[in-house]
C-alpha cells in the first residue's frame, strides 16, 4: 500500500534490498527492538525499515512515515557523501509526518476502500482533525 502511494506521486519504488532486508514483523524465534525506524545503509541503494506491524491505523501511519524517510534518503542518494543527509532532522520528520497524516486521512482511506464514503460525516472529520492536532501540535 505504501509503495503504491509513493509511485503514484512519481517517487521511487523501493529497492529489492529494501524488501529482502527490512523487518516488517517481529520474528518468532528471537527478541528484537520493535521501535520503528528507517535506515540508509549508505551502500548501493541499501535502505531498510524496522517495524513490528499489525494491521491497524497507527501502523498504516507509521509505515508511511518510515518509508517517507526512505524516499528522502533515495532523493539525495546521488549527492556527495558529505551532503547525504537531511538539511535538518526536523525536516526529515516533517516529511514523514506529512506523508503519514495523508495515509490515514479520510480521503485516502476511502481510496483504499478501508472505509465507506458514507462514514465520513462532519463529526468524523472534526474528530480526525482534533486527534491530529492533539497528537502533533500539543
UniProtKB/TrEMBL annotation:
Record flagged with keyword Signal: yes
Cofactor: how and how many bound: Binds 1 zinc ion per subunit.
Family: Belongs to the peptidase M2 family.
Protein name: Angiotensin-converting enzyme
Cysteines paired by S-S bonds: 34-52
GO molecular function: carboxypeptidase activity; metal ion binding; metallopeptidase activity; peptidyl-dipeptidase activity
Cofactor: Zn(2+)
Amino-acid positions noted as binding Zn(2+) 1 in the UniProt annotation, renumbered to this chain: 65, 69, 93
InterPro entries xref list: Peptidase_M2 (IPR001548)
EC number: 3.4.-.-
Gene Ontology annotations for the cellular component aspect, listed alphabetically: plasma membrane
Biological processes, Gene Ontology terms: proteolysis
Active site residues per record: 66 (proton acceptor 2)
Chain residues that bind Zn(2+) 2: 65, 69, 93
Keywords: Carboxypeptidase, Disulfide bond, Glycoprotein, Hydrolase, Metal-binding, Metalloprotease, Protease, Signal, Zinc
Pfam families per UniProt: Peptidase_M2 (PF01401)
Amino acid at each position: 500500500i505504501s509503495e503504491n502511494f509513493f509511485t503514484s506521486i512519481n517517487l521511487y519504488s523501493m529497492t529489492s534490498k529494501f524488501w529482502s532486508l527490512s523487518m516488517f514483523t517481529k520474528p518468532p524465534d528471537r527478541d528484537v527492538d520493535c521501535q520503528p525506524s528507517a535506515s540508509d545503509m549508505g551502500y548501493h541503494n541499501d535502505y531498510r525499515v524496522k517495524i513490528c506491524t499489525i494491521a491497524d491505523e497507527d501502523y498504516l501511519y507509521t509505515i508511511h512515515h518510515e518509508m517517507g524517510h526512505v524516499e528522502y534518503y533515495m532523493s539525495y542518494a546521488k549527492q556527495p557523501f558529505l551532503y547525504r543527509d537531511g538539511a535538518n532532522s526536523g525536516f526529515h520528520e516533517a516529511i514523514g509526518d506529512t506523508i503519514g497524516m495523508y495515509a490515514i486521512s479520510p480521503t485516502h482511506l476511502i481510496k483504499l476502500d478501508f472505509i465507506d464514503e458514507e462514514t465520513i460525516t462532519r463529526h468524523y472529520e472534526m474528530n480526525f482533525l482534533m486527534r491530529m492536532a492533539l497528537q502533533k501540535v500539543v
